Amino acid sequence: MILEARALSVSIGPHRVCEGLDLDLAPGSRLAILGRNGAGKSTLLSTLAGLRAPDAGAIRLDGKPYAELGLSAAARLRGWLGQDRSDPFASTVLETVLTGRHPHLSRWSWESAADAVVARDALAAMGLSGMEDREVHTLSGGERQRVAIAALLAQQPKLHLLDEPLAHLDLNHQIATLGLLSQRAREPGGGIAVAMVLHDPNFALRFCDRALLLFGDGRHAEGPVAEVLDAESLSRLYGHPMRRIGNFFIPE
């Protein structure tokens, strides 16, 4: 099991995100985290990433607590894509993606030719071949998002934690990104595990095998998408009547 959470309770001030959450993510798992704005999806994901402490409960990454692993070992196992994009220094697309290789380098090492190959492969996977020398500041919002995902791919972690990975992407790149993550999770011989914050339950239904619903008051529901995603639960989740037509959920 790459990620385990036991009796996890998370809150933001007086707001309860979840209480008593048990979660297991094995290689091949694709978990969608769904909920209304302000439900605490990003807060929970950052807690699972070891970036903030839970109120109660335990989290283990590859069988060990984050404190025992240390920052470098954790970064080799767990990749994190947050919502914030900050590029304070001028850098090229390739240089930016190469930052994903840093957890694999020793203290005084430079990126090798092999690291550059990994970075270029990640750019190709995100449809960005030929843009290696572009300055990041000249890119569109969607292109910068794809560069950030490429950096995560170049990191090659076992666990991918992505907070709204589809932000700024057009429909074509949304489908391509979800398809790529799903494909890599299901690779023979042990793929990655993915947990991501999504807004569209139809994407969760199509590309994920598990779903975690956060109702905004500490209650949650987690399990296989076929069991968790139904019109009744989504109506309660979003506070708006939903119905299912074939393989799609639509608002009434």
| Alpha-beta classification | alpha/beta
Query: What is the helix/strand order?
Result: EEEHEHHEHHHEHEHEEHHEE
**Tally the helices: what do you get?**
10
Report the biggest beta sheet as strand number plus sense, adding barrel if it closes: 6 strands, mixed
Quaternary structure type: single chain
Distance between the termini: 39 Å
Estimated share of beta-strand residues: 25-35%
Order of adjacent strands in the largest pleated sheet: 5-6-7-3-8-9
Question: Unreliable runs, pLDDT <50, ≥5 residues?
Answer: none
Description:
- With 252 residues, this protein is an alpha/beta fold.
- Helices cover 35% and strands 26% of the residues.
- The chain contains ten helices and eleven strands.
- The chain has a six-stranded mixed β-sheet with strand order 5-6-7-3-8-9, sandwiched between helices. A three-stranded antiparallel β-sheet has the order 2-1-4, with helices on one face.
- Helix 5 packs across helix 6.
- It is globular and about 50 Å long.
SSE arrangement:
Layout: E1 3-12, E2 15-25, E3 30-35, H1 41-48, E4 56-61, H2 66-69, H3 71-77, E5 78-81, H4 93-98, H5 113-125, H6 141-155, E6 159-163, H7 171-185, E7 193-197, H8 201-207, E8 210-214, E9 220-224, H9 225-228, H10 231-238, E10 242-245, E11 248-251
Parallel strand pairs: 3-7, 3-8, 5-6, 6-7
Antiparallel strand pairs: 1-2, 1-4, 8-9, 10-11
Helix pairs in contact: 5-6
